[in-house]
Amino acid sequence: MKVTALAGGVGGAKLLVGLQRAVAGSGELAAVVNTGDDAIVYGLHVSPDVDIVTYWLAGVADTERGWGLSGDTFEVVDALGRLGADDWFRLGDRDMATCIYRTDRLRAGATLTAVADEIRRRLQVPTRVLPMSDDPVRTTIACADGRVLDFQEWFVRERCAPEVSDVRFTGMPDATASPGVLDALSDADVVVLCPSNPIVSIGPIVSLPGVRDALREHPRVVAVSPLINGVPLKGPADKLMLAAGLDVSATGVAASYADLCDAFVLDAADHTAPGDVEALGMSVMKTNTIMSTHDASEALARRILEP
Ligand code: GDP
Ligand code: CA
After folding, report:
1. Ligand 1: nearest atom to the Cα of 13
2. pTM exceeds 0.85, yes or no
3. Mean pLDDT, the chain cut into blocks of 10 residues (307 residues total)
4. Residues with C-beta atoms within 5 A of ion ligand 2
5. Which residues lie closer than 8 Å to 293 by C-beta, 6 or more apart?
6. Quick one: CA dihedral 260, 292, 116, 142, positive or negative?
7. Which residue from 242, 35, 252, 256 is spatially nearest to 144, judged by alpha carbons?
8. Alpha carbons 207 and 175: distance in angstroms, whole number
9. Strands 190-193 and 2-7: what pairing?
10. Is the distance from the beta carbon of residue 297 to the nearest atom of ligand 1 less than 6 Å?
11. Rounded CA gap, 50 and 37, in Å?
């Protein structure tokens, strides 16, 4: 069985771990990962979502904190702070090595796709990790106070506090999906939209030319809700959905995917009436979606892949 999953950071990474286990030995998994959160930090090309996904799949992520590498230290960023650099982006030392490697390879002419593949192979990740695009797409947040912030400035430096008036993807639609992304979608038996942030993680991927059409044409696209009873397990999905004029609920997520999905997974504890989602033209599956362990992720993945 061939599975292709669209993912952002932590919510995506958790389900990818389960999918990777579920297909082991009997199938193939490809992850198409958001690059709208990429940034230049300390002169380095940081690809937070691509790295989070790779670290989780390699079993080296700090799963408590969600981002970065387990047991990493922060000597370099602390030293940069002492030199007077803006040190709000807490990049761990070994995590920084990944970014140094990426920056160096990009400067030598490699693509983001090639670098992501080198890194996942060296970390012995069997899943193909495909950055959504090799072109620069940057998520920016227009704030109610008039400022336009890069996504990391809003998310990390300002801790999602400024009220959002608009979310923009700079560089879209001139960007194209990276080589392999459209093939990974058309070749897949099942496409999964991970329970990632619908606006800033899945949003940029499905905005790339060709991706939305590929999903519409695909016979089996399954999405998992990142919201349970209207609340994200983590992160600012609620604020961003509100700014996008969506209902802050699983139904709101389903509505934003209505033309893309064939099936939608609601959490077992969600009070949403399945009929509200079915009315959007998709079938509904109800199961536990809280992935507090790798076993829980695998159980969810197996449910999604059931024929
Ligand atoms: P980010 O880039 O690290 O914010 O990661 P994503 O966009 O991939 O994921 C963020 C979303 O994941 C949030 O909206 C969370 O509600 C959701 N999420 C995190 N953990 C879980 C989980 O165990 N189950 C479900 N259903 N959603 C989760
Ligand atoms: Ca992210």
Report:
1. 8
2. yes
3. 97 98 96 98 97 98 93 98 95 98 98 98 98 98 97 96 97 94 98 98 97 97 98 94 96 97 98 97 97 97 95
4. 8-9, 37, 49
5. none
6. positive
7. 242
8. 10
9. parallel
10. no
11. 9
